[in-house]
Amino acid sequence: MPKRHTRHMSSDSGPLHRRTIPISVHIFSGFFYAPFYAPQLTQFIVTITMYSTYQRPAGYQPRQQPQGEEDRRPAHRRTVDHGSAFGKWHLDRLSGRTIQPANMRSEQSYIVDLLPPSAYTNINGSLRSTNPHITSVAATPAKFIQVALNKVRHPVYSATWTPDGRRLLTGSMSGEFTLWNGMTFNFESIMQAHESGVRSLKYSHSGEWLLSGDHEGNVKFWQPSLNCVNVIDKAHRESIRELAFAPSDHKFVTGSDDGLLKIWDFHESSNAESVLKGHGWDVKSVDWHSELGLIVSGSKDNLIKLWDPRSAKNVNTFHGFKNTVMKTTFQPTGTKRLLAAGCRDRTCRILDLRMLNSGSSEAGPTAGTDMPTRGDRSMAVLRGHDSDVFSLTWHPTHANVVTSGTKTGSIYTFNVDTTPAGGAYGPDSGILPVNTIPSAHDYCVSTLDYHPEGHVLCSGGLDRMTRFWARPRPGDPTSFRDKYYEPKEEGVSVKTLPGVNNATSRAGMARVEHVSTQHFNTAQPEVTDDEPVSIPGFAR
């Protein structure tokens, strides 16, 4: 038997130092042969005691901890789980308990009583609360939750939630699709979808298809698994600004900077079915009504046009905008008879489709001003923006809540059921925001989209970031003490907005004071019989 050689260390070489070194050993059965497999032994710690003659050099000093580092704690990833709120709401409905949102106490412990936004909406035509401000505050995304950043950052042009609400899909200037988790907001996947910037993303009503349009005028068809199945090369000569599906999902419409709108058959998309001509400049926005046979478009020629998709003719035109109309969108819930438009004149306007007539196709005596014309007399103006409006979206469950984003990175939330300040038709008439986030982004807010349940808002901007916002906890004092609520050097501060009770609107789920409200439509004159409605598919 060979003799084992050992080295004895004498005290002449220096004092002995005992060091205990923890070593983490992982066992993977696929890496080497093992006669047995024990899942509980996937990791264990081996402690090895070593002796050496190592001595610290003279003048050695331990690392000094920088000032303030002792107060630095690891950042926690915030998670917005709406499952408990839906579970409580379901149990309340089964037990027949009445939901009273006005009795929510301004204490964080009462978050257990916070229900999803859809719990505070109308049921069978009856309001849960007599104060419309309560429902709007219950749906206001005022609390910053998380920011999503790609490894290689590019401006975010478009964003949309998947139909099931589990993920968020964003399109960037580089042509990439990025998937983010809808609950923890962490990165999931990325792929190169287009060769140029993704300008528009739109899911079908059934959720079975996704359309995307890019800066070069191409349209791509995607399955929910993001498998591309069809491409329309050069659908337009210039950038495609927006797409919209028909209610049946068999057709869709595209709007482009070439000034044209094109209607396509989803199954036979080799050539456009019809071309809608009438705008004199770039088409910036387009939407297809979910019930009526109606298409709306906004353009750089300061006009909004309504189109009949069957005859490809213009049926109505709105004047009175001072600058480019950047966003037009129909009301997705409620009566579905309202139209919201965001313009670069620092205003948004709400139009009632039930009060339109053929006389609005010509410019009235007050065209180009804030005064509504004879054909646009159902107009309500949303004021208080600090710069041009670039993005706009309706709340998916609250039909009276509208959120807008501006060029300077601010986000505003409005309740269109409030009485306009300055009178119904005064020169300074307008609805003021119920909540403002003045520093939501560093640059322009290019896209806004609500979660299908309405409890989370996503905003994408040209500052290359995607941010998530949610409702604050009841009485949470830290909800509005972050950098996003610090007013910018240029622009309007939240505290200086006239007529806005910021202490009330910022209270989130806390206490809401009673405000005398009246739906703006009820204050408008009646439509007489000599002013026929010329909207196809709509019977008065």
From TrEMBL:
The keyword Lyase does not apply. It comes from Yarrowia lipolytica (Candida lipolytica). Residues 69-80 have a biased composition (Basic and acidic residues). It is found in: Nucleus. It comes from the Eukaryota. Its main location: nucleus. PANTHER family: PRE-MRNA 3' END PROCESSING PROTEIN WDR33, WD40 REPEAT PROTEIN. Transmembrane segments: none annotated. Pfam families: WD40. The keyword Repeat applies. This is Polyadenylation factor subunit 2.
